Structures are given as C-alpha cells and as structure tokens.
Amino acid sequence: MQKYYLDACIWIDYFENRKDRFRPLGEWALDLIKKIIEDDALILYSELVEEELSTRYSPREISAILNIVPSEKLVKAEISDGQIRESMHISKQSNIPKKDALHAILARDNNAVLVTRDKHFQELQKSNIIKKPEEINLD
User: Fold this and answer.
1) HEC profile of 95-106
2) How many domains does the chain have?
3) Which of 80, 91, 105, 114 gives the lowest tally of CB atoms within 10 Å of its CB?
4) Residues in the chain with pLDDT < 50?
5) What is the rounded CA–CA span in Å between residue 61 and residue 11?
6) Is residue 110 part of a domain?
C-alpha cells in the first residue's frame, strides 16, 4: 500500500487554501489528499507535524485539518530517539533544519513519499522520494 507523509506546509496550503502569485497551492493540496484517499493509499503525519501546526492553529483547528482524512487512511508515525539523533547528525552534515531532517527520516523509515514544498528537502533526495502535490499522479 502506497504511503504519503505530508509536511506541515501542505496541510497549511490545504486549510488556508493558499495561493502564490500564479498557483492554487491549496487546491492542489486538497486534490492530492482526495486522490490519495480515492487510491486507497495512506497519509502519514507525526507529532512533529502537529507541533508545527500548533504555532498557527488551536488544537481544535488541527483536528479539523486532519479530519479531512478518514481515520483508517490517516496514520501517525512514531518518532524514536534514534531518528532524533540521526536528524541532528543530518542537520549538521547537510546544513538543513533538524525538523526538516526528521520529517525526511520519518518518511524514509515508513516507506512513504515525502510531500512538501520546502526547498531544504532537496538535499535529501538521495535517500527519499520527495514530491510536490502537483507532481504526484495517482491515476
């Protein structure tokens, strides 16, 4: 079964229906979430995603964000001490934020495609499949 780990920015794009100058980022995020559900795949998130969302939203809003996904299609990836240590090492080695490294490790360790817009993740392409919502074709 295919799995997708959505970075906090994708959840924010969806919830705020964000747009940049030319692109409907929120629409693309929502379309991807719907496609993943229809394709019988899983969406992963973590405590780290919840933590990042909590800087903008209340617990009730975070629940509303995640509740777009049926509970049987939404999986919370657990974070281990080893993954935290590895993220600190990768962060120093690749000069990327520790949290970004941890997201990538969680996606890798759960055999999930990491879905993000964050440019920091490009450094981690060797060990992860990293895509933007509009780059994923589930048809």
Assistant:
1) CCCHHHHHHHHH
2) 1
3) 80
4) none
5) 11
6) yes
